[in-house]
Amino acid sequence: MLRTHAGKLAATTAVGAMLMAAAACGGSSDTGTATSAPAASSASSAAPTGPKVGLAYDIGGRGDQSFNDAAAAGLEKAKSELSLADTKELEAGSGETGAQKEQRLRLLAQGGYNPVIAVGFAYSEAIKKVAKEFPDTKFAIIDDAAEGPNISNLVFAENEGSFLVGAVAALKTKKDHIGFVGGVQVPLIKKFEVGFTRGAQAVKPDIKIDVKYLTQPPDFGGFNDPAKGKTAAEGMYDAGADIVYQAAGGSGGGVFEAAKAAKGFAIGVDSDQALTADEGVRSVILTSMLKKVDVAVFDFLKSYTDGTVQAGVKVYDLKAGGVDFSTTGGQVDDVKNKVDEYKQKIIDGTIKVPAE
Q1: Full DSSP string of 194-205
Q2: CA dist., res. 89 & res. 277, Å (int)
Q3: Where along the chain do its domains lie?
Q4: Would 285 disulfide with which of 84, 109, 221, 274, CB 3.0-4.6 Å?
Q5: CA–CA distance, 214 with 181 (Å, rounded to integer)
Q6: Where in the cell (predicted)?
Q7: How is domain 13-156 classified at the CATH fold level?
Q8: Taking Cα atoms as reference points, which of 34, 136, 36, 142 lies closest to residue 79?
Q9: What's the number of CA atoms in the CB half-sphere (13 Å) around residue 251?
Q10: Mean pLDDT, rounded, of the chain
């Protein structure tokens, strides 16, 4: 979910024309990224035989160093292993309408992209409507249970993964005071908060936990405002917290900056941010809650190519390997065995982590 934009590849003429149409319908906040496989030359002996895949990103798109980049990683793996014929990637704009989200998905389906993947719960209403219009197209949505005979739901047990990093925070804090910064106060992000709180309290029942959400819906800018993230975290460090967990998309970069300035630690989210965040802040990232969106995207695309794709909900929990905690940098090596014990208890059902 970090919103630093990567370079954009040029689309083919046809794709470029469709993007212009989308901009005309969607307004200035509707930006697009399209990537297409190069045209096969006359000398090519084996043109790709796989599907044309469309992917609609959440705000920020490729280069966010977290949520969207995890989806992109799954797509890249599919490109290398599944011989995709073509791919097209479109990016959400800040403050856009539901109609713009619909137009993005419709643009992909009209262009013959099948399957189409929507990255994030913000596409919930849009995908339900567009999937009805294109019953022969397979759709998938990450983080939402929107129903439809041609919609696959790729959801995660964020509460379970967050329990583990909450346990890490409680085991590593020197002040018995930690914090949580959420991007937008919606049920999905509440799962992160609840899991984190329960994990920390499992280790230290009386630990102090500060909680701050950057925005309330319908304002989703809290997922793309590093300055707000930095201010929220600064308040927690100033109040005595020494570790802050962020589930705040692009705003998380500001939390990392605040941690560095305060000589504290932060916890990343979605991907292993000790590998993906700006190099200047990686040393303050104690661990990250791994949400394996890349695995879910690749699994869905593989099932499509295998002819086994199914509509409905597939949950990526700890048992399925869909969430976890990272150990990059060795900063949690001293507590890893203890956290692994909690992990096993969740897997075998001894510990049940609530979602709200």
Answers
A1: HHHHHHHHHH-T
A2: 22
A3: 13-156, 158-290+326-347
A4: 274
A5: 7
A6: Cell membrane
A7: Rossmann fold (3.40.50)
A8: 36
A9: 26
A10: 88
Q: Is 315 helix (H, G, I), strand (E, B) or coil?
A: strand
Query: Of 292, 293, 217, 212, nearest to 245 (Cα)?
Result: 212
Pairing of strands 285-291, 323-325: antiparallel
> What's the topology of domain 158-290+326-347?
Rossmann fold (3.40.50)
Note the residue count of the chain: 356
As a whole number, mean pLDDT of residues 177-189 equals: 97
The CB density around residue 157, as the number of other CB atoms within 10 Å, is 22
Q: What distance in Å separates the CA atoms of residue 168 and residue 158, rounded to the nearest whole number? A: 15
Hey, what are 319's tokens?
Answer: 């048992």
C-alpha 163 chain-centroid distance: 18
Q: How confident is the model at residue 202 (pLDDT cuts 50, 70, 90)?
A: very high
Mean pLDDT of 312-338: 97
> What confidence tier does 46 reach under pLDDT thresholds 50, 70, 90?
low
Q: Is 240 left (phi over 0), alpha (psi -120 to 50) or beta?
A: left
Query: Helix or strand or coil: residue 31?
Result: coil
Say whether 78 sits in a helix, a strand or coil.
helix
**Fold match, 13-156 / 158-290+326-347:** yes
Separation of alpha carbons 121 and 278, rounded Å: 26
- Predicted pLDDT of residue 123: 96
End-to-end CA gap in the chain: 22
| Adjacent-strand bridge partners of 268 | 288
Tokens for 133?
């219009």
> What pTM, to 2 d.p., does this model score?
0.82
State the Cα torsion 47-51-57-60 to the nearest 10°.
-10
List the structure tokens of 30: 């509707």
Distance in angstroms (rounded) separating the CA atoms of residues 293 and 296: 5
**Gyration radius (Cα) of the chain, Å:** 20
